[in-house]
Design goal:
This protein has 338 residues and is of the alpha+beta class. The protein has three domains: 68 residues, Uridine Diphospho-n-acetylenolpyruvylglucosamine Reductase, domain 2; 151 residues, 2-Layer Sandwich (Uridine Diphospho-n-acetylenolpyruvylglucosamine Reductase, domain 3); 95 residues, Uridine Diphospho-n-acetylenolpyruvylglucosamine Reductase, domain 1, CATH 3.90.78.10. Helix content is 25%, strand content 27%. Strands 6-7-12-10-11 form a five-stranded antiparallel beta sheet. Strands 1-2-5-3 form a four-stranded mixed beta sheet. β6 and β7 form a beta hairpin. The longest helix has 19 residues. It is globular. The chain starts with a strand and ends with a strand. The model has no long low-confidence stretch (mean pLDDT 97). Bound molecules: uridine-diphosphate-2(N-acetylglucosaminyl) butyric acid. The site of uridine-diphosphate-2(N-acetylglucosaminyl) butyric acid (EPU) has 19 residues, from α5 and α8.
Length: 338
Amino acid sequence: MKTSENQSLLEYNTFGVDVTANYFVEYESVEELQRLLATDLLRDNKYFHIGGGSNLLFIGNYEGVILHSAIRGIRELDRTDTWVRVRAGAAEVWDDLVAWTVGKGYGGMENLSGIPGEVGATPVQNIGAYGCEVKDVIDEVECVRIQDGALVRFSNADCQFGYRDSIFKREWRGQYIVVAVTYKLQLQPELHVNYGSLAEEIKRFDVPTVASVREAVLAIRRRKLPEPKVLGNAGSFYLNPVVSAAKFKELQSLYPQMPYYEAGNGKYKIPAGWMIEQCGWKGKSVGPVAVHGHQALVLINKGGANGLDIINLSDSIRQSVRDRFGIDLTPEVNIIFG
Ligand code: EPU
């Protein structure tokens, strides 16, 4: 177990916000985590668990304990003629796992190539991109229960996945720490390449495979999304709002060019990036923060921004979208107030 005091979190948040935590603890096994949960450090202080820090915005120094997993390991558990189950420790880098499975020709994760972050966050957030979500391949989630340190296993159905959502963000918030995830992948992959920009990009491959889908997705991401090491960011800053059929019809009559996706139950998802662009924010800077010039859903730290600079820009954007479209954007990024 590694423990440090007054730890800088600069390397632990992709927004590149320069804050500190009173304590930072990294554990390497389930047993270490179980022991840690019983210590005074966690009884006497508030704490927050981070993964790759790719979906976080710290507003100030964190006056408590930041926990981080170092539980690694990728291994195949079992297989039939049609599927294989792969188990990964929470601290594995998600895209390393995707590269590993794609390298073996297994299907299911290729559309989720290039998403920053670690395995442990994937079920909590139900990460998604290019028409797929991680819920489509999650078989089981292993967690430690914070209350008593018990190791518990949850099925896909237990997790109650939704759009960038799961029970871990709602009813079970703060109750479990993910230690490993088991994914069920296809041995005869069925490719999903209908998503707008991917459908175009994949045309350059004669016979698409999981490897070519990965290559195509990575190419699109490189064009649209800023590299966090160069320009601090946390991916999409907002969720794409899901609206009723009535609201959708009203907007569509005003904006016939508006892109949309059917979201089930008669509802529609409207790309927040499109709305932000319509409001004139794309590529605009305010001090050290800006709206990314290639994807308006992404806010960037041009250097030296703090959490409040980012929140202030976000508030102005939300106000514009509210005024013009009558929609209140919900941040997708996890905002942590000291
Ligand atoms: N659009 C614009 N202007 C913009 C951005 C987007 O007009 O500045 C339009 C596009 O032309 C397109 C539509 O909006 O018609 C959708 O754009 P895009 O495919 O780039 O995806 P998105 O809806 O903006 C979502 C996810 C991304 C994911 C992409 C691709 C959310 C909150 N975001 O973005 O996920 O990579 O789809 O599947 O659902 C993330 O969660 O951090 C993330 C990057």
